[in-house]
Amino acid sequence: MLLNAHRPHAAAAARPPAGRRRPPPPVRAAAGNGNGAAKVAPASSAHLDAPVALSGGAPLSGPDLSVVVNGLRLPNPFVIGSGPPGTNYQVMKRAFDDGWGGVICKTLSLDAGKVVNVTPRYAKLRDSAGAVFGWENVELISDRPFATMLDELRRLKQQYPDRVLIASVMEECNRGAWEEILGRCAEAGVDGFEINFSCPHGMPERRMGMAMGQDPELLAEVGAWIRGATT
């Protein structure tokens, strides 16, 4: 669930014009090999790896990549998902410096002291040939103090007012706790919320994350609290 922290909007996203397809790129001939054959390559292939100059996450040349989703305008549609890349100020700042349109911070809760991670908690994913193609982890939500994360979110938004900063939040079945975490994040200046009802290792013993999302009646009740606190 993604909510605009400032006002409710129907979700909207950029779509390609109906009935139009991009034509294939022209080709150019390379040098022949002496037997009448020649290799061909897309005329634009020489530019595919060229760096693109950005300003505020928007390309200075080429097409406009900006999109509007639920009232939030992003300079481009590339967003860092909640997880280790949103752990702290430094890594989120790096994402914005590198041109990402938005960042979703690692999921927050009011009492980070209840979050106890294990080590190691990362493992390599390998294909049938043994090559690494990804990572898996059993890391819990943020174990950093909530006040510290709020200070860092506030600092980020002040430095990057043109980017979208989303707070991922998770709480127990406690109306007061949900209203507090949403209110304090909004005061820090975040643009929207990711409501974490899906994390499979989101501390189910506290009925958080997926444990809450899989209970329709509980989900409806908590969802009503959230809508009431954000609209």
Describe the overall structure:
This protein has 231 residues and is of the alpha/beta class. The chain has one domain: Aldolase class I (TIM Barrel). It has a five-stranded mixed sheet, with helices on one face. Strands 2-3 form a two-stranded antiparallel sheet.
Order of helices and strands: EEEEEEEEHEEEHEHEHH
Note poorly predicted spans. Answer: 8-43
Structural class computed from helices and strand pairing: alpha/beta
The CATH fourth-level homologous superfamily: Aldolase class I
CATH architectural label: Alpha-Beta Barrel
* Overall form: globular
Helix percent reads 10-25%
Kindly report the spatial arrangement of strands forming the biggest sheet: 1-13-12-9-8
CATH topology: TIM Barrel
User: Beta fraction of the residues?
Assistant: 15-25%
Q: Summarize model confidence as the mean pLDDT.
A: 82
Secondary structure blueprint with pairings:
Layout: E1 2-4, E2 27-32, E3 38-42, E4 54-55, E5 58-59, E6 67-69, E7 72-74, E8 79-80, H1 89-97, E9 102-104, E10 122-126, E11 132-137, H2 146-159, E12 164-169, H3 175-187, E13 192-195, H4 210-213, H5 216-230
Parallel strand pairs: 8-9, 9-12, 12-13
Antiparallel strand pairs: 1-13, 2-3, 4-5, 6-7, 10-11
Helix pairs in contact: 3-5
Essential attributes:
single chain, 231 residues, alpha/beta, TIM Barrel, 5-stranded mixed sheet, two-stranded antiparallel ribbon, 5 helices, 13 strands, 24% helix, globular
